[in-house]
Amino acid sequence: RAVRAIWLGLSATGLGVSLLIVSAWVVYLNHPGVSLVDGYWMGPVPWTPAGIVLILGGSALALAASGAAIMVGGDWLRRFLLVVIAVLPVVWWLTALGAVSFGRFRGPHPVELAYSLPVTAAVALIVPAIAASFLAIEPLRHDRRVRLRRVHPEGRITTPGED
Q: Fewer Cβ close by (within 10 Å): the C or N end of the chain?
């Protein structure tokens, strides 16, 4: 079930990024002389916040489901890496919800913070969600020791015509 939730979160994140790119592209095509980045800043109101909400929810779901899967079935190294990976999103969410002050920004407005600082949101939310998902989905490495057993009973080797 956790793997389904991870894929659902990653899919929602990808859909949100695609929605932001398409809405910026539409503005770029309809307004000659503007760049794609200007298209993001001038993006249509219902689509840009919807894309940001999909990114926020999807990355949070992917990170939470990955964390649950790693804590239940992961080894100590994956658990340690999960804690390291989760620090940045936790700090971002604390800032977005107003628990940590950041300049003139006063929360709780996660969509506003993600819209105002899109690169920071991408680095603090999308990249850790992908990294944690990779840790959770990648199968655990099995024991790589060679296990030999006898092929012939009692160590006797037979030739093809000797049965």
A: C
Q: Which residues of 43-70 are buried (b: 16+ CB within 10 A; e: fewer)?
A: beeebbebbbbbbbbbbbbbbbbbbebb
Give the residue-averaged pLDDT of 121-149. Answer: 80
Nearest CA-CA partner of 67 in 54, 50, 84: 84
**Structure token digits, residue 34:** 């503007």
What residue has token string 């006063």?
106
What percent of the chain has a predicted confidence (pLDDT) above 90? 52
Say what the pLDDT of residue 155 is: 59
Q: Tell me the HSE value of 147 on the side-chain side, using a 13 A CA sphere.
A: 3
How many C-beta atoms lie closer than 10 Å to residue 72's C-beta?
A: 9
Helix (H) or strand (E) holding 115: helix 110-116
pLDDT surpassing 70 at residue 93: yes
Rounded CA gap, 25 and 16, in Å? 14
What's the whole-model pTM score? Answer: 0.80
